[in-house]
Structures are given as structure tokens and as C-alpha cells.
Specification:
This protein is an alpha/beta fold and about 280 residues long. It has eight helices and eleven strands. The chain binds adenosine-5'-triphosphate (ATP) and magnesium ion (MG).
């Protein structure tokens, strides 16, 4: 993958952005100031994926990113994970520029990508074995506790092909949590599971994040999923993506039985309206 170095003039910050610049990079858990990322095309041209993104995330928050397909959500998440360098701007995690991946950040991808030759327990211990952070027995005990947390204690000795899609996604989550990240980055993790399982996983995820004290940045296309999970929903414009609006979701947690309540539905409607205009408007408007 080729990433182009581009130099761009600063743009006027919007929404959360202005807060970010006002408070300063060092004061935030995660700080993105005027972050742009461009890919190099085959013919040498550059393709701007995200454009002067301003964003902050505070420790303990659960923030969802929504936006039209191709607007750069995965690109932004990859940059936060340290998989992808930014082209310009400033991206800091705990006060330091993000320059590489680290055990403090774990990514949960849409496809579980479990190792088919390892049983569930040893899929979860894999990252710990690779990092050499724990002895085998300690890693197994740690993984067992996580399987309990995600409701899969009885499936530790099963293999991935013996699990449903939703169960595989829980293993995926347990695997990400195994390295005890502070920040969980989730890229449409529940997109391929059925609606009922998805709702159950959302409830579990909120509980897990609270118990494990992790901060979460969650990408989704599903508006009600975003409203259910998030403390804040940040909405990207179409590509090149910029965060055009932020909606703070003031619904008390836990939210297990909130989905049919008028307040919840009002938030869904509000976010849907913003998303519809973000998808239409040119990103530099
Ligand atoms: N490795 C790459 N090389 C070149 N261009 C890329 C690469 N990855 C993504 N892009 C382009 O960058 C833009 C943003 O892609 P990205 O995957 O970040 O969007 P997204 O918001 O996650 O979309 P979706 O909602 O469909 O997952 C797209 O136009 C895409 O074609
Ligand atoms: Mg994506």
C-alpha cells in the first residue's frame, strides 16, 4: 500500500474539532488535528482518503464513527492503530505521536480471521504467545477468564469451524482483549452476524468495555447500533472524509431495553438526518 506525503493548508475546524484545537493535543487521550491521508494511485497520482480530520477521544469513552462507504473510516482507524502513517497533520495517542502499532491498541476486524487449526482457547492465547508476555499456563488461565467474559467458557476446546458467526466474533473480541489493550478499535465487527445476535453482542460489548475498562472507537454503518453503543457519534462526510458533525448521546447506560424508547428513536432520527446530508454534500462545503 502506498501512502503519499501531501502538504495541505489548514482548514477551519468543525464540531469536536474546534474543542480539540482549543484544548491542545497533550490534553487528550487520542488527538487528531487536521489529519489527512492520501494513497498513491498506480499512475503516480494521489487519492485523498481523509481530509483535515479533527477528532478527540477521551479515556473511557465509547465513540462511534459513521459515514458513507469509502469516506475513510477504516483508513482513519488504521492510522490510529499505527498500521498506516498519516500524510499530514498531527495524530497523538496519550500525548505521543502514533508511529507504530502497540499492545495498548487492539483492532477487531469485520472478519474474525481465526486460526482454523487452533482451538478457541489457543486462538485467544495466540497474541500472548507471540508477544511472550505470559507463560503458557498463565496465558491459558487469562484466556479462559476472557472466554467466560464473552460467554464462551464451554467452547474453549472447540475449533472455529464448529462455531456460529456470532460465536466466532466473540472469540475475535476475546482475542483482542487478551493483550489487555487500553483502546479497542472495532471496524464493523458485527456486520456479518444476524440482527438478533448483533443486538446481543452490542449489549455484551458495552458490558465488557465497562468491566475491562477499555476505551472504544467503533466504526459502523448501522445508525441504531451507533446510537445504542456510543457516548458520541461522529459523522464523516463523503470522501475525502472529514468529521462534519458530532451527536452526543445522552442516554443512561446500561441501555439493554432502550431501543424502542422515544429518546432513542429521536437520536436515531437525528443521526440519520445528519448522515443523509453528509452523504450528499461535497466534503469541503
Ligand atoms: N490500500 C489502499 N490503497 C489505495 N486506496 C485505498 C486503500 N485503502 C482504501 N483506499 C481508498 O481510500 C478511500 C477510503 O477507504 P476506506 O476503506 O477507509 O473507507 P471506509 O469509510 O472504511 O469505507 P467502507 O464503509 O466501505 O468500509 C476509498 O476511496 C478507498 O478506495
Ligand atoms: Mg471500512
Amino acid at each position: 500500500m502506498a501512502i503519499a506525503r501531501v502538504s495541505m493548508p489548514p482548514k477551519q475546524a468543525a464540531g469536536a474539532a474546534s474543542q480539540a484545537s482549543a484544548a491542545g493535543a497533550a490534553d487528550h487521550y487520542l488527538y487528531a488535528g487536521q489529519v489527512s491521508i492520501a494513497y498513491a494511485g498506480r499512475g503516480g497520482e494521489t487519492m485523498l482518503a481523509i481530509d483535515h480530520v479533527d477528532f478527540v477521544l477521551e479515556r473511557g469513552e465509547f465513540v462511534c464513527l459513521l459515514g458513507p462507504s469509502g469516506c475513510g473510516k477504516t483508513t482513519f482507524l488504521n492510522a490510529v492503530a499505527g498500521f498506516l502513517p498519516i500524510s499530514s497533520g498531527q495524530l497523538n495517542f496519550e500525548g505521543q505521536p502514533v508511529s507504530r502499532p502497540g499492545p495498548d491498541r487492539a483492532m477487531v476486524f469485520q472478519q474474525p480471521g481465526l486460526l482454523p487449526w487452533r482451538d478457541v482457547l489457543h486462538n485467544v492465547t495466540y497474541g500472548l504467545e507471540m508477544s511472550g508476555r505470559m507463560r503458557r499456563r498463565e496465558a491459558a488461565a487469562h484466556a479462559s477468564a476472557l472466554l467466560e467474559l464473552v460467554g464462551l467458557a464451554d467452547f474453549a476446546r472447540s475449533y472455529p469451524h464448529q462455531l456460529s458467526g456470532g460465536m466466532q466474533q466473540r472469540v475475535n473480541l476475546a482475542r483482542a482483549l487478551a493483550v489487555e489493550p487500553e483502546l479497542l478499535l472495532l471496524d464493523e465487527p458485527f456486520a456479518s452476524v444476524d440482527a438478533q445476535t448483533r443486538e446481543a453482542l452490542q449489549v455484551e460489548l458495552l458490558g465488557i468495555c465497562k468491566r475491562a475498562e477499555v476505551t472504544a472507537l467503533f466504526v459502523t454503518h448501522d445508525i441504531s447500533e451507533a446510537v445504542f453503543l456510543a457516548d458520541r457519534v461522529c459523522i464523516f462526510s463523503r470522501r475525502p472524509g472529514r468529521i462534519v458533525r458530532e451527536v452526543r448521546v445522552n442516554l443512561p447506560k446500561p441501555r439493554d431495553d432502550v431501543r424502542l424508547k422515544p429518546d432513542f428513536l429521536a437520536y436515531v432520527q437525528e443521526v440519520a438526518g445528519v448522515l443523509a446530508s453528509a452523504a450528499k454534500a461535497p466534503s469541503n462545503s
